[in-house]
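Hello support,

Our group uses your service weekly, and this is the first time we've seen a run hang past the timeout. The protein is dCMP deaminase. I'm not sure whether the cause is the sequence or the server load. Input pasted verbatim:
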Amino acid sequence: MMETFVQDPARKDWDTYFMDIAYMVSTRSRCPRRHVGALLVQGKKLLGTAYNGAPMGAADCSEAGCMIVEEYELMLVEGAEQVTKKQRCIRTIHAEQNLLLFTDRIDREGSTVYVTDQPCWTCANMLANSGVKEIVYHRAYPKDSEKVLSLMEQKGIAFRRLAAYEPPSQSGVSVIS
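Update from on-call engineer: The timeout came from a worker crash unrelated to the input. Re-ran successfully.
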């Protein structure tokens, strides 16, 4: 007699499972502006986690305040040049950067990165050169979105947004539609 396997409807799919973990990792961040978590996954094996924050042993933003800098970028919008102002904190190392610092290149080859937020331009460049084959994210980062998408297409890196995803309630994140 042959048994039939029935999938448990309460069991999460792999994308949800790993993104839930990324959001839980983000709860370690002490950044007052945004908590970001990232994971390195090879197949279904979790190889590393990281979150955004100050370098180890240095004062973080909650202790010493954010170090905000303003940058201006010349962009082409509908055929016209437009100057865009960006503000960013330079005290914080991004989650993706920490993930690359604390994982081995051999483990990154052909792996997937799950990250709570779409990578910024700098992180996208670093990830594009890291050996990963796929990046899965949840929250969009519109400031760099077009450039990042173009880079990922050029590099042949799968780049997916989990738009319908809902973070676990324990992460303290609420997503407004």
